[in-house]
Amino acid sequence: MRRTRTQVGIVGAGPAGLVLGHLLAREGIDAVILEAKSRAYVEQRQRAGVLEHDVVRLLRDVGLGKRLDAIGMIHDGIHLQFAGERHRLDFRALCGRSVTVYAQTDIVKDVVADRLVRALPLELEVEDVALHDVASAAPHISYRSADGEACELACDVIAGCDGFHGPSRAQIPSALQKTWERAYPYAWLGILADVAPSTDELIYAHHPDGFALHSMRSPRVSRLYLQVAEDESLDAWPDARVWDALDTRFALPGWRLERGPVREKGITAMRSFVSAPMRYGRLFLAGDAAHIVPPTGAKGLNLAIADVVLLAQALVALLRNGDESLVDRYSETCLSRVWACTQFSTWMTSMLHTAPGKDGFGAELQLAQLRQVVSSKAAATALAERYTGIPLPRV
Ligand code: APR
Ligand code: PHB
């Protein structure tokens, strides 16, 4: 048995765990990150790609801005398309803020590279991770290392950054835990294509056939999504059918969607999920381990980073000064932002997607809502404020 000790044991090397480790290291707090998958897997998994205004500022402030500034694409607005017309929402004019298109995979690569250069502990391909005594002052994590050795990591606190399916959340006794869940009767089929985006800014399109989103990853790589049935099979969607459906849903006189080789194709289920509290004793949950939002509005990654900014501040106060005030407020502070983003994501989702079956009344309400967003400055500003993100504390 290999026994080691650290101040913060972090389960999961997604954006939440990695950015938390990075923020703690800057404050001189030791952490060990344990991850079940390989480096290639965590660096390649296609996920989100839009960063809020303050998330970009934060990454820059903590030394993660080099590639972000070099290849991130600043967007001052989005396009909303419905009833055959495309309307631009100018975030910069409405609320003085912007978003940046920069892939989650790139954030993961940046933090992993920095961690390896500085020889900070990151154990990949570990198995059988189990959390113990999280309600006590001496929690620990048992696991098997990549080379099969049984290990035990003693910690002052544990950060459960292990996503929706990780083991951390189940440590909170069910009598103390409350969860909320909503399933949506549709899914997103996403493609990554080697073709220059046909748009300068993201297009969110409402269409009777279903929602479509034109996003991007770089000046040469497009990311596109189509609303499909929740039980849809990928086999039913050869590339040509995907492009044809995208053509129909984005159709606009004088505009053309360029096609290119499809590098990746996948289907993502849509759901909302919130679990509270986000702290139990010496265990703190962050990111998808505690909450999932539907992807419309691009909040998942931004919420995960907001959680760990608050968590890092709270843990520094606790571990450096024995000050428990921030850890005591951690769950409540996070959940207020989580519910605000859940509200926004649910609203965007229900405004833009076509409900299965014929719901003519619902479709007219959606169009009325969309017309209000593009014609009322107050309504447009409300969307712009939420899309570009609730302000984050400075680190
Ligand atoms: N042991 C070790 N690691 C684990 C375990 C386990 N038992 N279970 C899960 N993990 C790892 C996963 O392999 C994954 O790398 O935890 C990590 C969790 O990362 P994410 O799922 O990316 O979650 P998070 O860091 O909270 O980031 C949220 O990801 O899904 C997107 O839209 C979401 O963009 C948001 C972001
Ligand atoms: C993406 O680029 O993956 C993306 C962008 C905006 C969204 C959701 C996903 O609302």
Give a structural overview.
The protein is α+β, with helices and mostly antiparallel strands and 395 residues long. Helices cover 36% and strands 29% of the residues. It has eleven helices and 19 strands. It has helices at residues 15-26, 39-44, 53-61, 66-71, 91-95, 104-117, 239-250, 300-321, 325-352, 360-375, 377-388, and strands spanning 2-11, 31-34, 50-51, 73-75, 77-82, 85-90, 99-101, 122-123, 127-132, 140-144, 150-160, 178-193, 203-205, 212-218, 221-228, 262-276, 279-280, 283-285, 291-292. Helix 1 (15-26) runs parallel beside helix 8, helix 8 runs antiparallel to helix 9 and helix 10 crosses helix 11. The longest helix has 28 residues, at 325-352. The model has no long low-confidence stretch (mean pLDDT 97). The structure holds adenosine-5-diphosphoribose and P-hydroxybenzoic acid (PHB). P-hydroxybenzoic acid is lined by residues 48-50, 202, 213, 215, 223, 295-298.
